[in-house]
Write a structure and sequence with these properties.
By secondary structure, the protein is an all-alpha fold. Among the domains are: 84 residues, Serine Threonine Protein Phosphatase 5, Tetratricopeptide repeat (Alpha Horseshoe), CATH 1.25.40.10; 93 residues. The protein contains 17 helices and no strands. Helix 2 runs antiparallel to helix 3 and helix 8 packs parallel to helix 10. It is globular and about 75 Å long.
């Protein structure tokens, strides 16, 4: 779910107050519309520091302007200032509890467990009100966008019941109800079917999970993969790779990883999953296929090392994945000793210590779903 909210709420007002003073001194007189427009332009240019000054000036002009508060919250989130952003979002909810779904989507991401579910549901309710007011053909695209966002909110709630709230008495029932609501509002949302596949796996129904994955991929596989509005997000497709590996479909996993690498060849998780897939393929090799197995292990080692190299360069948060990659590199070295040509970055890899004890299961998933009753 990402970063969690916590701590006191004294930080936000100080941040906005400081920005207000700077904006007041440096900005000429603007109308509210001009301030909001300028704020958005600066955000589009990734100038968040100046954008916050204009947003703060708008809040100073009208502290109950929900658009200004929402923009300030988004700017602060982009700048890593979660706490003051939450303050702005909560004030938006207090001023306009029934309209404006965006604030609830953000609050849902930074809340936990049933509180997060509550915010996502409030967002869905707000979107439904907006949807009910769209009646003309000219609003078709807007309606489709709202429906997709509603389906994605249902997916987010399902994932909470599948993980953080999996021990709730009605967790399995809630998963089914939320996914059906998602399909009802947007039958062509790939994320709904992908999440349904995760639920089916947790119910020990792998064949049904495979059917759900097939339905999900069929909805976007033949679309323009360069258009991000037509395909699931990068992170969503990385999750799909993990799901495919759980279903023992390594070929599809590799095909998807090749696509993801073309989009971003500096993603640590993608390189790790490449290595893990090759490693799993090597384990499938029959006795006598020593040459093929050796090549797969060399490929796996190269990918793991690339993941470690990028993690060191990008200050990647090591949540166990890099430790596991290093452990596997050491295991591969014991089977296939590295040669001078295997990797020019050997010194960089050796400089990173491998922990003595690692808590890893057979599968390299980040979060393991609790198995539901069949």
């Amino acid at each position: 779910m990402g970063p969690r909210r916590g701590g006191s709420d004294t930080k936000g007002p100080k941040k906005v107050k400081s920005a207000k003073k700077d904006a007041a001194k440096s900005s000429p007189e603007y109308s509210m519309d001009q301030l909001l427009t300028k704020t958005q332009e600066l955000m589009d240019d990734n100038d968040y520091e100046m954008a916050l000054k204009f947003a703060a000036k708008a809040i100073e002009m009208n502290e109950n302007n929900t658009q200004a508060l929402l923009l300030a919250a988004i700017i602060q989130l982009e700048s890593g200032e979660v706490e003051p952003a939450i303050n702005c979002l909560l004030k938006c909810a207090q001023i306009s509890p029934d309209r404006g779904f965006e604030k609830y989507m953000y609050l849902g991401q930074f809340a936990v467990e049933l509180e997060a579910v509550k915010y996502f549901q409030l967002g869905v309710d707000a979107m439904q009100r907006d949807l009910d007011e769209l009646s003309t053909a000219a609003s078709k695209d807007q309606a489709a966008s709202l429906k997709r966002k509603m389906a994605e909110a249902y997916v987010a709630m399902t994932e909470i019941y599948l993980t953080d709230c999996c021990f709730e008495e009605d967790a399995e029932k809630k998963c089914e109800e939320l996914l059906q609501s998602g399909l009802l509002i947007d039958p062509e949302c790939p994320e709904v079917y992908q999440t349904m596949a995760s639920v089916r796996l947790s119910q020990n129904r792998p064949d049904d999970a495979r059917d759900c994955v097939a339905k999900s991929m069929a909805l976007w596989a033949n679309k323009d993969l360069t258009d991000p509005t037509l395909i699931p997000s990068y992170e969503n497709r990385l999750a799909l790779v993990r799901l495919l590996l759980e279903l023992d479909d390594k070929e599809k996993a590799l095909g998807l990883l090749e696509q993801l690498q073309k989009e971003d060849d500096e993603n640590v998780d993608a390189w790790y999953l490449f290595g893990w897939t090759y490693h799993l393929q090597s384990e499938d090799m029959a006795t006598g296929d020593d040459e093929d197995k050796t090549e797969l292990l060399r490929s796996a080692r190269e990918c793991f090392k690339q993941a470690v190299k990028l993690a060191n360069m990008l200050d990647y948060e090591n949540d166990g994945l890099i430790d596991h990659a290093l452990e596997l590199v050491a295991a591969i070295d014991a089977i296939v000793p590295p040669t001078d040509g295997d990797d020019e970055e050997e010194d960089d890899i050796a400089a990173t210590a491998v922990p003595n004890e690692l808590e890893w299961d057979d599968e390299a998933s980040e979060d393991e779903d609790v198995e539901m009753g069949s």
